[in-house]
Design goal:
By secondary structure, this protein is of the alpha/beta class. It is built from ten helices and 16 strands. It has a six-stranded parallel beta sheet, with helices on both faces. It has a six-stranded antiparallel beta barrel with strand order 11-12-15-14-13-16. A hairpin with a 5-residue loop joins strand 6 and strand 7. The two termini are 31 Å apart.
Amino acid sequence: MQVHFGEELLRAEWTDAVGCLGTFDGVHLGHQQVISTAVSRAREKGLPCVLITFDRHPAAVLAPEKCPKAIAPLSSNLKAFESLGVSVALILPFTQSLSETTAQAFLDEVFIGEAKTRHLVVGHDFAFGKGREGTTDWLQAKIDTEIVPPFEMDGQRVSSSAIRRSIEVGDMIPAKKWLGRPFSLNGIVVAGQRLGRQLGFPTVNLARSYDGVVPQDGIYSGFAHTSLGGFRAAISIGMRPTVDGNHRTIEAYLLNYPGTEIYGTSVDLEFYRRLRNEERFDSLDDLKIQMARDVEAVANDIALR
């Protein structure tokens, strides 16, 4: 998949393409249905599929105080686009100027002018341009447009907001179902207080580089993808009250990890289910006993098989 940041960097030599546009936060099953439809139409026509998205949520510019936290970073979304068969991803910086661009100008200059798209596939609730004037009805009157109906599971429409709420309360099972994969956090391994090492359960501590949604504080059963392979993981999110922690941390004990240092490397933590609340223990020995129980629960979690 080719990736371009900004339409001024795109030099399309094709004369026709199938396009789709959206924020696609988390690339959940509803998004996948829209993108897969666009890819299928492109293959039927023998054309490239051009996906246009933004470098941030539009609300970050239009209403910062209401901007939702990202389900996944752009890097993860790009991997999902490629896995779905997208030919070209065009990432537009969402600026105040872009938000004031009319739907007609966006259609003429970006869709048709730069990306050379002559056919569009969009979701049922799609709208773009200044004042969201570019509705599905408006598009169908201007260009060959296919509208993909809402994607539902168990009578509920799959949406980024529903997934975000599920993650925020630590309910990882519906989040996994709606995403079509476990929710994951990406971060860089940094040095911590090394308390876990003292307790016999050395952990990897994650530092993130994006403002994304984080599960509710607690202990989770999960899986870690590292530079050395994949490992079951007992994941802890919270303030570490037993040791009077003063900031929220995300750390994980990796079962059967060989012990090789991985500071500075990138790790993806997948969350499968919440095991318990974060607790304050009377002593480090009590904490160690509970940590051993958590690790045993992760080792026996059939969801990780």
